[in-house]
């Protein structure tokens, strides 16, 4: 039984989908969770009340330069310390390569801002905090798309997720001697609003076609791995990526 009592954990994008399941599982193991949201304040506040243990909701738009900094400050001030950062919030914007250049670049920039830049800034703040405290863990949600690529409309998404893997591995190598561990988890199709948008565009059959287990992954299939990584039991796997894609891509 994993015990995360006295462990404060910030989970970004915890208002719904995978982040919500992660927050629930961490709290069930005793963690106090900072439930981050962007637009879904009511859901995040209701979740924080439901999981209890001193968990609290924190709002911030991670599509801005200030958002991640304000989020970290608010959580640190409120919780006093943070032991684990889970970078989960993300966007997948469909953007046709034949679109007007300015619009395409805007989509590219927003994807990078939320998925990569915001995570990098939160990592920067977390590393400084962990250095003072003698260690900590960063778990980042990447994607299968980082390794096998994505469709033409989602190239920015795949590139941002590849960037997260490189960022996480760099942190593991650069700061391991200071007790900082970094991991990435790379889900395949997981039944959330994000996957629904993709399936509305390409059809569920497309999503299921190459999945060995012939079923979509559920958010609850991802969450236990995050609890495991947060616990310290996997610390000697620092730098690794764990694939959770129902056998749709193995590398
Ligand atoms: P959802 O679309 O269901 O949820 C996205 C979450 O990110 C929400 O909590 C949302 O907050 C938050 N978010 C979106 N935009 C912003 C922003 N500008 N600022 C701050 N927060 C924001 O996504 P999933 O649960 O499916 O995805 C979670 C993670 O898993 C993402 O990183 C995604 O890339 C990754 N992933 C998902 C896969 C899938 O098939 N679902 C596959 C592989 C990886 P709010 O609700 O408050 O707006």
Overall number of strands: 7
Main CATH class: Alpha Beta
Shape: globular
CATH homologous superfamily classification:
NAD(P)-binding Rossmann-like Domain
Spatial ordering of strands, largest sheet: 3-2-1-4-5-6-7
Helix content: 40-55%
Major sheet: 7 strands, parallel
How large is the radius of gyration? Answer: 17 Å
Return the CATH topology: Rossmann fold
Structural class assignment:
alpha/beta
What is the distance, rounded to the nearest whole angstrom, between the alpha carbons of the first and last residues? Answer: 30 Å
**CATH architecture title:** 3-Layer(aba) Sandwich
What is bound: which ligands? NADPH dihydro-nicotinamide-adenine-dinucleotide phosphate
| Beta-strand content | 5-15%
Return residue spans where pLDDT drops below 50 for at least 5 consecutive residues.
none
Give the SSE string. Answer: EHEHEHEHEHHEHHHE
Number of DSSP helices? 9
